Amino acid sequence: MFTGLKRLEYRGYDSSGMCIDAIDAPTPTGRRESASGDGLANGSSADGTSSSNGRVEDRSSPIIVKCPGKIENLENLTAEYVQQHNLDTSKVYKHHVAISHTRWATHGVPSAINAHPQVSDANADFVVVHNGIITNYQALKDILKKNGETFVSETDTETIPKLLKFAYDSMTAEAGSGEAQVPFPKLVMEVLTKLEGAYALLIKSRHYPGELVACKRGSPMIVGIKEGPDGSSSSSKVSSGGLGRAASITRLRDQYNDSHWTGALEAWVASDASAVIEHTKRVVVLEDNDVLHIVGGGYGIYNTRQADVETAVPRRLQVLQLEVDQIMKGGYEHYMQKEIHEQPEAITQSMRGRVKQQKSAEQGNPYLQQRIKLGGLVETRDTIRRSRRIMFVACGTSYHAALAARQTVEEMVEVPVVLELASDLLDRCCPIFRDDTCVFVSQSGETADTLRALEYAKARGALCVGITNTVGSAISRATHCGIHQNAGYEIGVASTKAYTSQIICITMMALALAEDSISKRERRDAIIDELGALPDKMRSFMQVQDVAMKELAAQLKDSNSLLFFARGNNYATALEAALKCKEVALIHSEGILAGEMKHGPLALVDEHLPIVVVATRDSMYNKMESVIQQLLARSARLIILCTAGDATMQEYAKRSDCQLIEVPGTVEPLQPILNIVPLQLLAYHMTVLRGHNVDQPRNLAKSVTVTD
Questions:
Q1: What is the CATH topology of the domain spanning 1-218?
Q2: What residue ranges of the chain are covered by domains with CATH 3.40.50.10490?
Q3: How does residue 587 score in pLDDT terms, banded at 50, 70 and 90?
Q4: CATH class in words for 539-697
Q5: Per-residue pLDDT tens digits for 2-18
Q6: Is the pLDDT of residue 44 over 50?
Q7: Contacts of 215 by beta carbon, 8 Å cutoff, 6+ apart
Q8: Rounded CA gap, 654 and 324, in Å?
Q9: Is this model's pTM higher than 0.85 or not?
């Protein structure tokens, strides 16, 4: 459980907790303050009574431990609890249900009381962990209070277990005596009809020992399956029968006799594949409104939007293309550092099998016409070309990637290109038409605002294209077609390799759409040639710049602000570099379009404020040189990012105190990919020198799966 939680640390959290079954749980009910006063541990019996030896004999008794702060705090509190109550941690049970959670505060401050799991009552009849936000929780809370319920936390989540208990009591009263009259998934489905908002839920109950229900709407969730008498993976079986407490569930254990049972049938439910990859690569990706019921060595999946909610729905078993070493740091100190240095390989993987060469149709012509082959766009390529406009919709770093490639799409496809921040598009109810193509860019494929914008665009008949780095993500499933980035797993909260990979993917999309244009052929070929050379160019300067950026970071680490000036494609570079400094180094920074310098930003310039100017050799070079001259005239503290060997910039460095960051040159559409690397390294080293957490920056999460 702890390992799984640690695999999810990168998503951001401020408290954690867990609930496990234990036959040796202590009798006293209620919460026990830890010695440090910053955690809660709870041991409750099923009926609130004690046995003669002071131990709980009911197998369904839960132990709940939760606390604010790091997972290490939870480990220590759990160890203290186990030691104090002499629990036997060596026991292995055939059936065991445990749930755990890392919370990111949305309702209520980070505290032990507000941490998950949340319970229905002192006896913990129902125990719930929850990702997401229940938007109508206050109305539900008011109703429950009128029915005598009391609340102890400030969370929206607490309404869920209390609603489950209220529904359970009502439904069992109607059905008569006997708890088995109300199947667990049916009870949960009844409660889900009352919830509004986004959620991924894990639910266990003492009324349903050995059972677990998981459900999702708008938040990611997968289930990893490991089967077989020896614990090995075999063919997965999903129920196709009717809803019931046990009859509807595929009873995998019935294939094996207890007398020769030498292994376990195991299922792991998580919000991310990284938490299950060490146990199995076989996963089922749950879809919105799915309800997963695990019991008796099998599982069934139902969907509340189906006409017949009591009939299980088929869900495809997938094999993860992920290795354990991909989620480890290797020889690096931080994931962000590792992922910056992985970028040459990441962009190579993004291009692998997609950059092709094919002989010209003209016989005897030795000229090889290079091609871009994107299988995900083959059937919709002509539709995209005929679009009235192409609209890119994204958030944060993904938005910057689309901005960096916008000019390339406009040049190659000759269709108007519009960029939209997903939240702003929704706020404005932006007009979208049937002849629009909307491209949704998201590393995780689960970004809440981008998903809502996708639903909005689909409802208006637009062709929807997805660019994501996660197979089976919500965006990849909901779009009509798309491109998988293949950049590899990214764990650091500050996106690095996903950003450069997204630029590559959008550029390849533009080249593929312009494939039949004779007038664009020469330009296309030049870009494609440079695509092939890009990984080696990136490798050639990365180690040198790593050392140089560490030295520069030492000079800038105490700065209160940092400005980045750029134009053209590199305006995205300025915005992305500023975002990285804000995210991880916690330095106020801004990316400024250099053409707007005289409309306000120039007033900030003095000899103390560090300013990074992106002035590589491209169509904006002369204009950026003018910007540099104006800044030097005002005694600005300049750092110039320029093309390696640029004599003009080297002369500026000699005549003034400005510093140079030199990068290899390439064609203009690809230059932002090289330019961002030293600035990523700069942000990384400033973060380390300032003593901040690189991979888990303050108040931020990797995947933003809830909306404001």
A1: Glutamine Phosphoribosylpyrophosphate, subunit 1, domain 1 (3.60.20)
A2: 329-517, 539-697
A3: very high
A4: alpha beta
A5: 888 888 887 778 899 99
A6: no
A7: 188, 192, 199, 200, 201, 203, 286, 289, 290, 291, 292
A8: 49
A9: no
